[in-house]
Amino acid sequence: MWAGIALKKILIAGEAGQTTNYENALAAMQVHFVTSLQVKDVDEYDGLLLPGGGDVDPKLFGQLLIPETEIRQYSRWEQQLIRKGQEKLTPELDRIQLAILKAFCQYRKPVFGICKGMQLINIAFGGDMLRHLPTAVHHAYREKDQMHPARNEVNSFLYEVYGSDMLVNSAHHQGVGIPGRGIRYVQYAPDGVVEGLQHEFLPVYGVQWHPERLERDIKKLKKLFKIT
To answer: For the residues 84-90, what does the mean pLDDT come to?
Structure first.
């Protein structure tokens, strides 16, 4: 995403105090960043980082909250997970982040989404979401991130950095469903859950996992942000 670009300023479209891991990652790469939800001029920035967060407002992809009758069909742990997610929705934040994302896309500025940020990318292009993954036990945060294998599609930005196979860290119980216009899914978990995407024509990329929290190889993290 940042290849060939003078990295003068990256916008982290998030709330102050909630984006520390992303700020630390960019600082480690010696990239200047601004964390803000107010954008007066997209041209002030060289790229956009859409951070992770809570559950996405289902109204944004044409669905409703999961009803209590359906929630009770899940395990006790999953019930707590779903209820907590639905109680802490941030509709206004979601809409602000979507508006910022669309503005950067209009100017063909590079965009990189992480976790919820990847989900918002898919929604912005008309895709939808899975409100709760059937295999959430393998992906949701349980005192720590869940580590699992992932397969990268050939001719994708992730394949170029990591090759065909890798381990990723998951902390989500939702996932992307039908891909949006121009969106290509480029990384999958063994259970079929989408872990990465990119746009066919625009410099827009996303991962469902959290590279900013991985300490295994900072060089690959740097390369990931440069290549996309």
So the answer is: 96
In the chain, what are the domain boundaries? 10-227
Per DSSP, the residues of 91-124 read HHHHHHHHHHHHHHHHTT--EEEETHHHHHHHHH
- Fold that domain 10-227 belongs to in CATH: Rossmann fold (3.40.50)
- Helix axis angle, 91-106 relative to 116-124, nearest 10°? 60
Ramachandran angles phi, psi of 170, nearest 5° = -110, 145
Question: pTM, whole model, 2 decimals?
Answer: 0.92
Average pLDDT of span 140-147:
68
DSSP at 62:
T
Rounded distance, CA 220 to CA 58, Å? 34
The amino acid at 225: F
Q: How many Å apart are CA 132 and CA 134, to the nearest integer?
A: 6
Query: Token pair of 153, please?
Result: 């599609």
- What number of helices (H) and strands (E) belong to the chain? 7, 11
Residue 228: CA atoms inside 13 Å, Cβ hemisphere, count? 27
